[in-house]
Damage-inducible protein DinB (Mucilaginibacter pankratovii), 172 residues
Amino acid sequence: MENQSIATTNTDVTVVTADALLKHWQGHRKLSRKALESFPEKELFEFSIGGMRPYDQLAKEMIGLASGGINGIVTGSWTTRPELEHFNNEVEIKTKAGLLAAWDEVTTQLDTLWPQIPADHFYDQVKAFGQYENTVVDTILYLIDNEIHHRGQGFVYLRALGIEPPAFWDRW
């Protein structure tokens, strides 16, 4: 009998647990927070390159998407806490300390609300923020991808300002 390779697929194998996914997301959030901390106050709100938004606006988007995302996934209400000017024109955060405090509040929200996601809900279809229809797990992956994208923009800003950004692998 000849040696034959048998091709198999593992499409139904659980690769990442819910707890591991939260840890992964929170690791990215820790690195994004380090990037936010690295900005000088003035440049955080004013500096941009090539028509991109200043980093405070990118950070507000990351804060709002994470907060509204976890709230929507758990409760069905895609609202942010703290309320951000970028999302609902109610409260505008005007200091780096205010952004860091909002960031930390959302970190607590994630840790509090995440365990309330039922295991079978991760593959339910949701319409995130009334716009994007996808599974819960794919919505979470989108939120993480969006944050990585904006953090990359922030790293470019920091380098342009002569500031070494945090190491991209330093997520713990």
